[in-house]
Input
Amino acid sequence: MLSPERILERCAALARHSELAGGLTRVFLSPQARAATDAVLGWMREAGMAAELDAIGNAAGRYEGERPGMPCLMLGSHLDTVRDAGRYDGMLGVVSAIECIDFLNKKNKRLPFAIEVIGFGDEEGVRFGTTLLGSRAVAGILDTEVLKAKDPQGNTVAEALRQFGLDPKRIPELARKKGEVLAYAELHIEQGPVLEAEGLPVGVVTAINGFSRLRVTLRGAAGHAGTVPMNLRRDALAGAAECVLALERIARQDPELVGTVGRIEARPGAINVIPGEVTFTVDVRAPRDPLRNQAVTAVRAEIETIARKRDLKSEIETLQEFGVTACSPRLMAQMDAAVARQGWPVRRLPSGAGHDGMALGAITEICMLFVRCKSGISHSPLESITEADAAAGAKVLFDFIEHFRLPA
Ligand code: GLV
Ligand code: MN
Ligand code: MN
Output
């Protein structure tokens, strides 16, 4: 039997591995990530899988098919979180997949393909500012330059991997070869309000919106907050405030666009000092790449104009860009069929959030199943799902796995 109680208990157990007292923050390659990954590896082994920590810090499990070494259906999601996170974003997909394998194993059932379940170590990109490190390594599209990215303490990804007991030189070995992965399927909370509004527990994803992430630095002149007259200031934070509003105005020009400044840091950061330097992030997303690219071009131009007008120096760095990832029509049809067999109306919807499937899309066909979450809330401790919806998600995923047909 699939146990939704156990799925929720395991999400709760993982939420206890947190650097934030009384809340959940678990970033890539942290001691808390190690503890959560070890728990997941243990559950994978209990479910009859061979499981190991891979060279980028993913929890990787494999359940052989009718014969050892067959190509796999890959399932997964991520084990890292944002700051002050909910306990289901990412983790629900990993523990639901393990629950499905456990059920197959109890039934002593082998399929005409292997199944791999991966708990990806980094999807959120909180620690190093660059996302999807775990899934990009598995897809073989992780540029080794990324290993030089630094966390706020100045540790590079390569150093953090070594501190975690991993050898960065082994990352290229993770890249799956053509034909080894038949498809990638990910269960994830919806992170939006559509399913709840329509009274549906699950939905089938059509595509994942693309994103662009920038880091902007504005440099002006620090000075005394009491002595420098307003007309002689080069206040970097006032300039940044204007940039934030410009981004909001550009993103509001099209209902399909969203733009966010999620982090801003003013230096030197004292009540009586004019901010001389400010760094902020920009996150722009859209379901169409040309729309996103136009918006990013407009945002860059606006920032440069604002900086010029205020006599600030501007530096704009592209941290990461990912195009729209379409889900495979034939996998969506298979997921639709699983939803219908489990007695639910089929609802298709796009994903505004990013997912590991974006990286896996480079090497295989992908699909996703969304599970309803309360009030569409995510990236918040208020994130919540019901046991009934955890059950519906796991049942549909299991049905999809059992009926998965190999591509012709
Ligand atoms: C990850 O959840 C993202 O969409 O940023
Ligand atoms: Mn997330
Ligand atoms: Mn997620």
Q: What stands out?
A: The chain is about 35% helix and 25% strand. Residues 191 and 376 are 5 Å apart (CA to CA).
